Amino acid sequence: MTDHPVIPIQYLVLCAALSVKEGMEEYEALKAITINPAAILGIDDRVGSIEKGKDADIVIMDGHPFDTFSTADMVLVDGEIAYKAER
Question: Is 0.85 topped by the overall pTM?
Fold first, then answer.
């Protein structure tokens, strides 16, 4: 968690990366910011993982998602390209 508003929500991925740095498995850190919160909220049947029939907003990165130098190449919302980087 980010303890929002003390640590703003936009630093959620950074918090996950710091957890990995301190010993958390990468897969567990990814679950901590995707499927686990969805399960806590009771909406994991709709969001939180990539599965057929779920709502899917997907970010395709140019590097590892926990690398602070990685940027979004493309964002897909409901199967449509909502953003594409101009490179």
Answer: no
